[in-house]
Amino acid sequence: MFLGLDLGTSAVKAVLIDEEGKVRAMASHPLSLSHPHARWSEQDPATWWAAALSAVEQLLAAAAAEGISSRRVAAIGLSGQMHGATLLDRNDRVLRPAILWNDGRSDAQCRELERVPGFRGITGNLAMPGFTAPKLAWVREHEPRIFDQVAKVLLPKDYLRLWLTGDYATDMSDAAGTLWLDVPRRRWSQSMLDACGLSVETMPRLHEGTEATGRLLPELAARWNMDRVPVAAGGGDNAAGAVGVGIVGHGQAMLSLGTSGVYFAVSDGFLSRPEQAVHSFCHALPGTWHLMSVMLNAASCLDFTAQLTGRSSVAEMLAEAERSAGRDDGPMFLPYLTGERTPHNDVHACGAFSGLRADSTAADLANATLEGVGLGLLDGIEAVDAAGLHANEVTVIGGGSRSAYWTQMLADIIGRPLTLRSGGDVGAALGAARLARLAAEPGASLAEVCAMPPLVAVREPNRARHAYYRERRQPLFRELYRQLQPLYSGASGRDGSPAGRSAASHHEGCS
User: How far apart are CA 80 and CA 71, in angstroms?
Assistant: First the structure.
């Protein structure tokens, strides 16, 4: 058996798979977010470890109920939310709450990092507030006493690793999201570390995702009745999610509909298009890279509109939207509730409904939300295409993939078949378990371990609807952003400090 542990933004998830790749047990434990100031997003790393313990122990109990002994676990793999800055002192004490991927305070520091000679060639990316390096630059400027105590910087999943094995280690895919990695060469960049006042010694060791970084600590092995099994380097959540659905070869692509929306396409060489805020990262597999477009808000927009319209759940809202089938003259929605990455790289972008009429209904707002997220995803997919990596078919994963209505709408918007596969809603934990197997069995076949799960459905695009979205709705969607951008870009404090809060509150009202 192989155990995958995924530290998400809203929950820690655990999954157990057998040698045939079948999921035998699952468990999770929820997490909460803190937003102490406008554009800030933080979590206490202590809650990560407590949630991980709970998820693993629930998982092992569920497995035991099915007659599966924890002694059969042969390896553990890790995945997690990317970019989070977990700062430790020399005694491994957490110095401050972790600054998360969707935190937007460090845009001024991004502009400074862009001035590092050769920046884009080293990182393959724009400097964005979501990445880790600008966060450390912000701490250096605004919290110097904390910065002076920093001995190690760990990414979220690697904080769990420290508790599991006692090792400071990470994988290439997660490290690529820090802006400290030389992405083409898969090694730490001294010049990027120098720009943040850090050193290689501050960083965890680098490993490929399929490598073991250490073994389970004796006290945990005893607590869980396991051997001291190897713990795989694993991958960032998107790379691990791709491994989980078999997106491992050049030209394969997936669309992840979680809290954020991600389009992920695999390349057998380094490619980049930073001018459109396309992310260029290492994959969790050796000698493999990927391009990624990222929307900060995807399924989270559905939660927003369900709450706004007083619906008891997203499921209720989706059912109402499907019954109404939408209107071609319905309102439009900008999905930028907490800023945006691809293609705008605009931390100040905000959400908006436009085109409301006296007869607009809650179902109209729901359909506008589904469509607006889809049009935002299309912008990102076209940016990846422009980098030279085009996929004719896309696999859909994440919680949003459970809606047949929305996935068909997305196929119509994007104009490509969308495939749904079993286990697509398990997410990155499944990929982490697969990486655990590859670490425990170095001779295992990649094609066998990372095979695509069985096909469940294919959403073929309706050509007439695709033409409608491309010819009528996409131009309106893009123009709406251009029209509103000067308003909200001037409404927020730009230094990310608490002093900017009152101005930033105005921009939050744009939603």
Answer: 25
* Residues 102-119 pLDDT 10s: 898 999 999 999 999 999
**Structural domain spans, the chain:** 2-238, 248-297+383-459, 299-380+464-508
Rounded distance between C-alpha atoms, residue 255 and residue 401, angstroms = 9
Assess contact for 335 and 510: CB atoms under 8 A. Answer: no
- CA atoms of 282 and 121, how far apart (whole Å): 14
Q: Which parts are annotated binding residues?
A: 82-83
Could you give phi then psi for residue 163, rounded to 5 degrees? -75, -30
Question: 472 is written with which tokens?
Answer: 């009528």
Tally of helices (H runs) and strands (E runs) in the chain: 19, 24
Q: Long-range contacts for 251-256 (Cβ within 8 Å, ≥24 apart)? A: 251/389, 251/390, 251/391, 252/391, 252/395, 253/391, 253/393, 253/394, 253/395, 254/394, 254/395, 254/396, 254/397, 255/377, 255/394, 255/395, 255/396, 255/397, 255/410, 255/418, 256/396, 256/397, 256/398
| Element holding 485 (H helix, E strand) | helix 474-489
Q: What angle do CA 319, 320, 325 make, to 5 degrees?
A: 95
Can you name the CATH fold of 248-297+383-459?
A: Nucleotidyltransferase; domain 5 (3.30.420)
Quickly tell me which residue has 């705008």 as its tokens.
Answer: 344
Identify the pLDDT of residue 423: 66
Quote the pTM value.
Answer: 0.87
Residue where the block lists tokens 């400097």: 127
Write the DSSP symbol of residue 57: H
**CATH class of domain segment(s) 2-238:** alpha beta
How far is residue 49's CA from residue 311's CA, in Å, rounded to a whole number? 33
Mention every residue, 6+ apart, whose C-beta is less than 8 A from residue 384. 263, 265, 273, 278, 291, 292, 293, 390
Is the distance from CB of 315 to CB of 303 less than 8 angstroms? no
Topology agreement, domain 2-238 and domain 248-297+383-459: yes
Catalogue the active-site residues. Answer: 237
Binding-site residue positions for substrate: 82-83
Percent of all residues in the chain with a pLDDT value above 70, rounded to a whole number: 95
Distance (Å, rounded) from C-alpha 405 to C-alpha 247?
Answer: 24
